[in-house]
Amino acid sequence: MTKSEGEIPSLPQEIMEDILSRLPAKYIAQFRCVSNPWRTLLSDQQFINTHLSNRHTKENLILISPNQSLYTITNLAVSRKLTFQPELSDTWTEVVGSCNGLVLLENEEEDKFLVNPTTLKQVKIRDSPLALNKRESFWMHGFGYDVLSDDYKIVTLSYYDPEDVHSDTFVDVYSVKRGVWRRLDPSPYNHSFPDLSPGAFVNGSIHWLATSSKSGYTSVIAAFDLVDEKFKEIPAPGCLDEKVFVFNKLVTFAGRLCLIDETQDNVRFDVWIMEEYGVEKSWVKFSVVLNNDWERVKLLCFTGDEEVVLLIDEERLVVYNLKGGTSRDLIVDGVPALFIEGGTFVESLASTGLGDCIGVQHFGWKWRMMKM
Fold it and tell me: pTM value?
């Protein structure tokens, strides 16, 4: 056999790229060290986008323990602890939002950190220098992806009076790609935002609960489109009433817009999901009935087996079976039994960008197995 006969033939470039785009992100990170051409290919934004669309990965959990340590849980079977560098608050850190594998965190001092738990990279992002004075105003944030400009954006709304629809609302937008804040031109937004919860990103828009003067001072869902950077209103389920800002929360759940209605009692709550975006009749409801009283509940994710994962009272992780109405605590071996905050993310190669940040940092992790 000649040398040429014994050589392994090389694959065409397009086939090689297709194979690589279907591999887990952790392997792609290793392959970047093979050669400079591979590093260039695997760091290309088009490849990163193709990899994300090909993988269709399930949602993973990102959790914050009382001592402000970060953990991720995959498939409810394996967890890893992140040795995380940001100056997380000693008392409180919030998951503002998650999109395409990037997670935006904010601590009690309102420092923001954009992290990718898969690639183990993160950046600190300064607050908008254009927003109103924090001591004299109210702020709310949202995070999402602008598909037209291929850019991730943070949106900050600041205003003086959350109850007054005539109070000026100032909108500042941060571009992760460019690393800069900018103020949108003044506009009559016709909305007030009494609920200061983070916005829910779905279908290219960030959504908040609001009161609309345009709709007769009723409770509405206000959606900020990240492409044209304008507000619109989304049809809401019938449970949205004058008690909305006390008992209702708007979240992203399984990639859909979701409204949690807590007006029932401290045992049961209803979950409304918009199955077809923008279609009022597509809202469907399911109920969760727990054995014990609770004060706060956060809906995290579906498991794919007619079960949902909940964070109860900023303490316990609970898996609830929708069909049988049963629940069980989610116990993780070797990690804290309590978690004060949580969210979801998908595995991706998305870049945290450089932009107007303080120190691009890396963080490590340790594997731990989880007992059910």
Answer: 0.85
- Residue located via tokens 């908008």: 128
CATH topology for 57-369 is Neuraminidase (2.120.10)
- Which pLDDT belongs to residue 208? 94
Give how far Cα 205 sits from Cα of 202, 232, 274, 305, Å.
6, 9, 14, 29
Query: Is residue 28 classed as helix, strand or coil in its secondary structure?
Result: helix
Which residues make Cβ contacts (< 8 Å) with residue 322, sequence separation at least 6? 286, 288, 306, 307, 308
Asked if residues 284 and 273 have their Cβ atoms less than 8 Å apart, the reply is yes
Give the whole-angstrom CA distance, residue 98 versus residue 115: 10
203-252: pLDDT as tens digits: 999 999 888 776 666 788 999 999 999 999 998 887 766 555 556 788 99
The pLDDT tens digits for 101-120 are 999 999 877 788 999 988 88
Tokens of 332: 């993780």
| Burial (CB count <10 Å: 0-12, 13-18, 19+), residue 265 | exposed
Cα–Cα distances (Å) from 157 to 49, 132, 171, 247, in that order, read 29, 9, 5, 22
Please list, residue by residue across 234-247, b when 16 or more beta carbons sit within 10 angstroms of its beta carbon and e when fewer do. bebbebbeeebbee
Q: Where do the structural domains in the chain lie, given as residue ranges?
A: 12-56, 57-369
In a 10 Å sphere around its CB, with 0-12 CB exposed, 13-18 middle and 19+ buried, how is residue 126 labelled? middle
Name the DSSP letter for residue 357: B
Residue in this structure with the two tokens 């394996």, named with its chain if needed: 78
Both tokens of residue 229?
């950077």
Q: How many CA atoms lie within 13 A of 339 on its CB side?
A: 30
Cα-based angle 208, 213, 215 (whole degrees, multiple of 5): 85
